[in-house]
Design goal:
The protein has 158 residues and is of the alpha+beta class. Helix content is 31%, strand content 19%. 4% of the residues are buried.
Length: 158
């Protein structure tokens, strides 16, 4: 049973693409002295296979914190494609911190980096606690010790 017969048997009222075949058109004729003739013909529709094309998600500038992804899947009848982007928040944090540092705002740059738990732990282990509420050094350590709920939980991926 071919695809057209299957669709007709199921009673589906949908448009179905013809299956690509390479059979030639066949025509037969016979005649004899009694002037009767028989003609048989077969016509095959040859069409390209359907295709789902994945969208191109590219970035021209390499100094961005976004990664593109895309994909596609195709069957004989149904095709789907998708694409999107993913933001790298740690990359953004690094760029923000560097920009703040370049503008001379060193404490703000450190505070931006301290939003990452790994940096926070490294700063505490080095004996230089992260700034909090405008306080640095021993004053900041006292606030962190008094309010442990304000310590960053982990790497934040929103």
């Amino acid at each position: 049973m071919n695809l057209k017969q299957l669709v007709a048997a199921l009673g589906l009222g949908i448009c179905v693409l013809a299956q690509a075949q390479t059979d030639p058109i066949v025509t037969q004729s016979t005649s004899d002295s009694k002037t009767s003739s028989t003609s048989d013909s077969k016509t095959t529709v040859v069409s390209p296979p359907p295709s789902a094309i994945a969208p191109s998600v590219t970035s021209i500038n390499s100094d961005i914190c976004v990664t593109g992804f895309s994909g596609a899947a195709q069957t004989q009848i149904f095709g789907i494609s998708f694409g999107g982007t993913r933001v790298d928040y740690n990359c953004e944090r690094l760029k923000l911190s560097k920009t703040l540092y370049d503008m001379g705002m060193k404490v703000a740059a450190v505070a931006t980096m301290c939003q990452d738990r790994r940096v926070f732990d490294a700063m505490m282990n080095a004996g230089t606690p992260c700034p909090i509420d405008g306080k640095i050094g021993a004053d900041a350590k006292a606030i962190w010790d008094a309010e442990p709920a304000r310590i960053p939980a982990s790497v934040v991926e929103k």
